[in-house]
TrEMBL record:
<dbReference type="InterPro" id="IPR020084">
    <property type="entry name" value="NUDIX_hydrolase_CS"/>
</dbReference>
<feature type="domain" description="Nudix hydrolase">
    <location>
        <begin position="189"/>
        <end position="319"/>
    </location>
</feature>
<dbReference type="InterPro" id="IPR049734">
    <property type="entry name" value="NudC-like_C"/>
</dbReference>
<keyword id="KW-0378">Hydrolase</keyword>
<dbReference type="GO" id="GO:0046872">
    <property type="term" value="F:metal ion binding"/>
</dbReference>
<dbReference type="GO" id="GO:0016787">
    <property type="term" value="F:hydrolase activity"/>
</dbReference>
<protein>
    <recommendedName>
        <fullName>NAD(+) diphosphatase</fullName>
        <ecNumber>3.6.1.22</ecNumber>
    </recommendedName>
</protein>
<dbReference type="InterPro" id="IPR015376">
    <property type="entry name" value="Znr_NADH_PPase"/>
</dbReference>
<dbReference type="InterPro" id="IPR015797">
    <property type="entry name" value="NUDIX_hydrolase-like_dom_sf"/>
</dbReference>
<keyword id="KW-0460">Magnesium</keyword>
<dbReference type="Pfam" id="PF09296">
    <property type="entry name" value="NUDIX-like"/>
</dbReference>
<dbReference type="InterPro" id="IPR000086">
    <property type="entry name" value="NUDIX_hydrolase_dom"/>
</dbReference>
<dbReference type="Pfam" id="PF09297">
    <property type="entry name" value="Zn_ribbon_NUD"/>
</dbReference>
<keyword id="KW-0479">Metal-binding</keyword>
<dbReference type="InterPro" id="IPR015375">
    <property type="entry name" value="NADH_PPase-like_N"/>
</dbReference>
<dbReference type="Pfam" id="PF00293">
    <property type="entry name" value="NUDIX"/>
</dbReference>
<keyword id="KW-0520">NAD</keyword>
Length: 338
């Protein structure tokens, strides 16, 4: 492991200090070092693994048990693909650092949108699949990494110019920042904070749906935080706006990065309303519908394994397992059953 680390950081002396660190600590320190040190990051790219995208769609491979995983190629394999398709080898340098594997191998992502999609798919034995669909197909732990990769690639594709001077911005080797070539202003990737809350009246939970959701799907209420708001203020405002309710007893559950529509930082909470104040007044400009659901209805939806067949009347359908909304709904159902 140390030998590998030394190669990755081109012999920098700090690698010896990692000898006493846990695997997790050494990985975090390696990623932090690679963000700051262009030469070390360029060296790590030569031995790293790469997640490929085509116009922000990740490359997935079907594995023998019928499930999907993101295709991860060694950088030498990506170079061979580029060569075979007649692309510039320097395209590899556009790779963006996304993390570090448990084997201390640096992980990158690269968008090959300028190459012919079908040709890359054939050479790599995979398919580029829209992230919304890929999110339902990926059951392993890689889904958050793929989401992070897409978010970073999108940020680079849309932040090529300084919003103060209009001049081009240049990225560092890892892609952790961009700097305006004229003013020196430094830009970092951004996320929008979103509060998401499962409201309960003690016996039932409140779920809503937007018209853009798949038929039958309901989720916890969510909304973007306004500038200057606390998490609690944003939560109370969103529930008041969308459902006409006043909540109390807010408790934090967990967070997640969510790549849609761009890059949101979801802050998941539970909250309560008094049963005598549970009369809904739904804002239909924001939500197509919002309703109270019983434990029985929610438990049945949690047991569903596959989407409802086309044409069948849709039962209650919940967001995918790795969405924080799913986690909030499951937590509520477990507490009710206790
Ligand atoms: N991971 C999960 O479990 C879930 C994630 N979500 C995500 O939460 C996000 C927010 O939920 P909504 O009910 O749509 O929010 P919302 O209730 O705040 O309404 C969306 C509107 O807010 C405005 N807005 C304010 N700041 C914005 C910003 N930074 N970016 C975009 N729009 C902004 C826009 O006018 C937009 O149409 C959604 O984009 C959705 O993808 C929603 C439910 C479940
Ligand atoms: Mg909303």
């Amino acid at each position: 492991m140390l030998k590998q680390l030394r190669i990755l950081v081109s012999g920098r002396t700090w690698s010896s200090s990692l000898r006493h660190c846990s695997g997790f600590v050494s990985r975090m320190r390696l990623v932090n070092q690679l963000k700051q040190d262009d030469a070390a990051c360029a060296a790590a790219l030569q031995t790293g693994s790469i997640f490929l995208f085509h116009r922000l769609n990740p490359l997935l491979q079907r594995i023998p048990n019928g499930t999907f995983r993101p295709a991860t190629l060694h950088s030498t394999e990506v170079q061979a693909v580029l060569q075979r398709l007649g692309a510039e080898g320097s395209l590899l340098q556009d790779s963006v650092l996304i993390g570090c594997s448990e084997q201390n191998q640096a992980q990158f992502c690269l968008d090959v949108g300028q190459l012919d999609q079908a040709a890359v798919e054939e050479v790599c034995d995979g398919k580029f699949i829209a992230l919304r669909k890929a999110f339902f197909l990926l059951t392993g732990a890689e889904a958050p990494l793929v989401a992070k990769a897409q978010a970073l690639l999108r940020w680079h594709q849309t932040n090529g110019f300084c919003s103060a001077t209009g001049q081009p911005t240049q990225r560092n080797q890892s892609g952790s920042q961009r700097v305006c070539s004229s003013s020196g202003i430094v830009y970092y990737p951004t996320m929008s904070p979103v509060v998401i809350v499962l409201v309960s009246d003690g016996k039932r939970c409140l779920l809503g749906r937007q018209s853009s959701f798949p038929k039958g799907m309901y989720s916890a209420l969510a909304g973007f935080c306004d500038m200057g708001e606390t998490l609690e203020e944003a939560l109370c405002r969103e529930v008041a706006e969308e459902a006409g309710l006043q909540v109390h007893s807010i408790s934090y559950s967990g967070s997640q990065h969510w790549p849609f529509p761009h890059s949101s930082f979801m802050l998941g909470c539970h909250a309560a309303v008094r049963p005598e104040h549970s009369q809904l007044s739904v804002d239909h400009s924001e939500l197509e519908d919002a309703r109270w659901f019983s434990l029985q209805e929610v438990s049945a939806a949690l047991r569903l394994q596959a989407p409802p067949p086309r044409g069948a009347p849709p039962p209650l359908w919940l967001p995918p397992k790795h969405a924080v909304a799913h986690r909030l709904i499951r937590e509520w159902a477990e507490r009710q059953s206790d």
